[in-house]
Amino acid sequence: MTALPNCPECNSEYTYEDRDLFVCPECAHEWMENEVEENDDKLEIKDANGQILKDGDTVIVIKDLKIKGSSSAVKQGTKVKGIRLIHDATDGHDIDCKITGIGAMKLKSEFVKKA
To answer: Which residues contact 75 (CB under 8 A, 6 or more apart)?
Structure first.
């Protein structure tokens, strides 16, 4: 049995085949196998050093980042484990993560490097 691809829209792993289409039950997106291969180059998210990031990677913050609406900040050198990439981010925040001591937040890939 071959592994089915994750949904290119929401990255869900619960996809299934319906004739010649793949279907995502979470966001109802339908696509053909060759569409994913053509769009793979567009979906790449790179860190500050140009390395390609993937879901689950560990990254290190390269600059102190102020947290909007708070007096605290994410300090340079903070290690963030298990990131999740957001491919259709409109505001540039293309990494979703949880930072120990701070909580869930979104980061821009230009302020992190792959660990």
So the answer is: 61, 64
Q: Which helix (H) or strand (E) holds 37?
A: helix 33-39
Burial class (CB in 10 A: 0-12, 13-18, 19+), 4: middle
**pTM metric for this prediction:** 0.62
Domains of the chain (ranges, CATH numbers): 1-36 (2.20.25.10), 58-114 (2.30.30.40)
Contact 94, 44 (CB under 8 A): no
Confidence of residue 43 (pLDDT cuts 50, 70, 90): low
